[in-house]
Amino acid sequence: MGSRGNAGQVTRRQFVAAGALGSAALAVGCKSGNWEFLTDTQARTLGAICDQIVPADDFPSASQAGVLNYIDRQLMRHYRKHRGAYLDGLEQAEAMSRKRFGGELAGLSQQQQLEIVNGLSEQNSTFFGLVRNHTMEGYYGAPRHGGNRDGVSWRMLGLPEPPVRGRAQYDLTKHDPSGVAQ
Amino acid sequence: MKRVNAVVVGAGAAGGIVAKELAVAGLSVVLLERGKWYTANDCRKDDLRNQRTTILGNAFGPEDEGNPRVWVDAKGDAHTVLPSEGPYQNDASCVGGGTLSYGAQAWRYMPQDFRMRSTYGAPAGSSLEDWPISYDELESYYEKAEYEIGISGDYSGTPFHGQRKRPLPMPPLPPGREFAILEPAAKRLGLHPFHIPMARNSVPYNGRGPCMRCRWCVGFACEVDAKNGSQNTVIPIALGTGNCELRTECVVKEVLTDERGRARGVAYFDEIGHLQEQLSDIVIVSGCATESARLLLNSKSKLFPDGLGNRYDQVGRNLQGHHYTGAVGYFDFETYDDVGPGATIAISDYNHGTPGLCGGGMLANEFIRLPIHMIDRLPEGTPRWGLGHKQAMREWHKRCIQIFGPTQQIPTAEGRVTVDPGVKDKWGLPVVRISGNVHPHTFEIGEVQAKRAAAWLKEAGAIHISTMSGKPEVVSAGQHQAGTCRMGNDPRNSVVNRNCQIHDVDNVFVIDSSVHVTNGGFNPALTIMAVAYFASEALVKNWKGTGFRG
Prior knowledge:
The complex is a heterodimer of chains A (182) and B (550). With 182 residues, chain A is mainly alpha-helical. Helix content of chain A is 50%, strand content 0%. Chain A starts with 6 loop residues before the first helix and ends in a 26-residue tail after the last helix. Chain B has 550 residues and is α+β, with helices and mostly antiparallel strands. Chain B is 21% helix and 19% strand. In chain B, strands 1, 2, 7, 8, 9, 10 and 18 form a seven-stranded mixed sheet that branches. A seven-stranded antiparallel sheet of chain B has the order 5-6-12-13-14-11-17. Chain B is globular. The chains are: A mainly alpha (182), B alpha+beta (550).
């Protein structure tokens, strides 16, 4: 588990996964080498959804912080079991976008994207629940898994990055009961 | 393979102690552990993959691949579950067992915890019972565990504990900010807050240094080896005697018995998957409540067609853990100091003595707070995603305190472990099947405990409070699992006697949390250790050279 195949293997694995689930997702886009599992088209759709879950403000959005790296990697590892849900859910999001606004999700305005994502959360709560949790994990979890680029979310929360690794950070001789060096 | 006096199955909290006590007494011991031996260098501080937060899997086993279990839900539907999923009720599989990566609270149960049925009477539908041993009988073994394993803390702030002859061997760590906020509030409420007893060095002890206060305790191996488990205390002593051999990555298939029903050793798969036999005079099963029960149930023979020691259909019953409830308080000032171990302050005022409730539990502040834990721990009404959620994360991450505690469970005979008739693990062994639910009175106690936690937070100045007291439709076991081979005097409603010896078979012992009759309102590790010292002493006393006469 966890081996990084070359691009050919990735395509074959994805083909098997997609084929087994009867999804037509392979019809759109082709491998670019940017992602282990996703196509560029799927990544654009997923990025639009993730950025509604954690939008940009003074701090980066989900996709700006690398959440897509996290999800893409885990779809080749711990979340292999969710591949079918992703392929179907992303396709559904695009279908909703085309039907409602006549274009691909990533090309819509923020307000239009929010409308589609709200609809998705009602029509496919299983898929949306997965993306919501995985986006949070990628954004707030350790950078080692591909998201939370440069520990940006931890710095946003005022936490040390890298996380405190010991006594050197504290002066335990001070009388402040918390022992935190001022 | 050379025959030995004793095979110990499982190198966790109990198995490590048993191996050490027997090896020191001169018995030859083989200690079998299905997991690996990790060290402080294996502390990866991975917030998504550790033993507490298993989003991407368990850090210290078992692996998701090849180790399924079956969980039967409240409707009776069976699901195959993986070790990183909640209903699996996982405990770590590695040298040290849960004690490598636990938070390391090291509580003594209270005298009433050993006399639950006498104190309260058994609620309808429960299997509430007394232990066949008392707190007073265990007291000196608790003390031995506190000194040999190494416990810091200070009980002097509370009258709510059993008598003790000696103080803890180490003072508590200096208090953190949450302690400073919560202590005066508890005192204003007339409660008795004190420093949690912890298996953690606050000063140099046992040849290792003190805690560096990093707050990555529960779920992780300690980076500076200041947290004390069996893997860095008793197991090295056992090996140092020259009488004990530790074999890791060995999965025991069954306890082998002779035509008279006595054990003659165990069959196990070694680290490359070859089936081996280790013959021995005695066998000690210390695999944790779920796995010990499974091993006995999988050890079938002509004399024990339903599993070793299972003549009265008792093996696997009374599975219990703790029902955790509490509250989160949100403050208009910073409460977070990022100083470990995090959990520092507790009260045991509410463990017993509330009219209408069969027991209660201790309440303490929480160990670790990582951003990933906060995503679903925001004030009620916070959006689950979007800008509002992101802003709430910024607003509350450093301005909240969580108080919760292990409500003592009322056991039932239906909360149980059996072996699944169909699903097998990668060695071809039938897997644990978990069924049953928590007794409803446990939920009633838990709800009261949550309100008490909320009242404490309110007194401390919380401006919003969310209580946490669900009614999960799944038996609770997890890292606090206990009760599947209950200790008792009557073979018809227990599996082992007071010395942890199986009623029917004098050379097979179960020594681990499986024997707990009830599981206290506290983290169980120190009681597992005390019982292990108690049972080991009885075993050594009854040992007659190469044979065993119980």
